[in-house]
Design brief:
The chain is mainly alpha-helical. It contains 19 helices and 2 strands. It has helices at 3-11, 16-23, 31-40, 48-56, 72-78, 85-98, 118-127, 131-143, 150-162, 171-183, 187-198, 205-220, 224-241, 244-260, 264-280, 288-300, 304-321, 324-340, 344-359; strands at 61-64, 67-70. The protein has a two-stranded antiparallel sheet. Strand 1 and strand 2 form a beta hairpin. Helix 8 packs parallel to helix 10 (171-183), helix 9 (150-162) packs across helix 10 and helix 10 packs parallel to helix 12 (205-220).
Length: 362
């Protein structure tokens, strides 16, 4: 433990360490929830409000909007204190119950918001001994990139792996950590994780996505042959698992790889298939990348009108959602195709618009 924590506990009444350890079962707290935990592991002759006042002035607590949390370095140190197993499980089950859907209207001001997330549920289920359900919630947090929980889920799962509550080699947990590293642009660590995942013989979503993202990383490192092999495997697995959105994105990645290799026929096939599939599943926004890719391919193949057609469609889609990066690329594509057709005024207008759009990204 830290010297400050040792000093705090040495001056505190007997039982304070156990009470503090109980509070550290939670990732973040409100006073209301802290008092509920304190009722399970109280300090003799010290009421809960008094204990919380002492804790708040100790310097070990940081506010988090209407919630608060015990500082990470303090919490990790306190978690090393032994606790009666049944008591700890009781606290985690209490926290699971507080995160039930019927209490969601109390989130953030009376009950910590994380308890209502998949990451929070996964964490407390594992600590309560339900590893199977915990892994399922961690998996769902990892696979849903739109829920914003991945970072928290990765941090909590890594803590539980270190403490021996979860197995480090689980593909679901490896994927969770790797996808967060990828999102943080820590490609070296992401690559290590994805390599471990794709070496498994499992046919699952985590492997399909890992094959794709590992290929993207390797392509940046000019390892195009292996990247292509990984993309081929990823596409087959996406198809087998019915992962249509992921299939659109993987076909797009392989199309751009073919385009970089000047394999125009193969690139055109991948881009066209991706566009068709995106439209079939009602996700037209996913077709923007393939449209720009197909437009570039058509232009290189001499089909300048086809390139303009794809650029027009892409511009219509991205203007509606204010996707300025792809809008810049689409204006450049259309401008170059117009130049190829000797429409110099039109080309200059589009290239000027691409510069304006690119500047707005700065």
């Amino acid at each position: 433990m830290t010297p400050e924590l040792d000093l705090f506990l040495s001056d505190a009444p007997e039982g304070a360490a156990a009470a503090l350890r109980a509070l550290c079962c939670a990732e973040s707290l409100t006073d209301e929830v802290a008092l509920k935990i304190y009722e399970v592991v109280p300090v003799p002759r010290v009421n809960g409000e008094q204990f919380l006042i002492a804790l708040h002035v100790s310097g070990f607590v940081s506010p988090r909007n209407s919630e608060w949390h015990i500082k990470p370095e303090v919490r990790q140190s306190v978690l090393n204190i032994e606790m009666v197993a049944n008591t700890e499980a009781k606290i985690h089950k209490l926290l699971i119950g507080l995160g039930s859907p019927d209490k969601r209207n109390l989130a953030h001001y009376r009950i910590p918001g994380y308890l209502f997330t998949r990451a929070g549920k996964a964490y407390h289920l594992a600590a309560a001994g339900d590893t199977s359900s915990s892994i399922d919630f961690y998996r769902r947090a990892a696979l849903d990139s739109r829920n914003g929980e991945q970072w928290l889920a990765a941090r909590l799962s890594e803590e539980q792996v270190r403490r021996g509550l979860l197995s480090e080699g689980r593909v679901e947990l490896l994927f969770l950590t790797a996808i967060v590293r990828y999102g943080d642009r820590n490609y070296e660590l992401a690559e290590r994780g994805f390599e471990r995942i794709v070496s498994s013989d499992l046919d699952c979503e985590e492997v399909a996505i890992s094959l794709h993202l590992l290929a993207v990383i390797l392509r940046r490192k000019a390892k195009t042959e292996r990247a292509l092999l990984l993309l081929d495997r990823s596409i087959v697995l996406h198809e087998a698992l019915g992962m249509h959105e992921g299939l659109v994105m993987t076909l797009n990645s392989r199309g751009f790889l073919f385009l970089a290799q000047s394999k125009l026929r193969e690139a055109l096939e991948d881009f066209t298939r991706a566009i068709s599939l995106a439209n079939e599943i009602g996700r037209k926004s996913l077709s923007v990348g393939p449209l720009i890719g197909r437009g570039r391919t058509r232009r290189l193949d001499g089909d300048f009108l086809g390139a303009i057609e794809d650029a027009d469609y892409a511009i219509g889609l991205v203007e509606a959602v204010d996707d300025r990066r792809n809008l810049t690329a689409a204006f450049i594509l259309r401008g170059l195709a117009k130049r190829d057709l000797n429409d110099l005024d039109g080309a200059l207008a589009d290239l000027d618009r691409s510069v304006e759009t690119a500047r707005s990204l700065e």
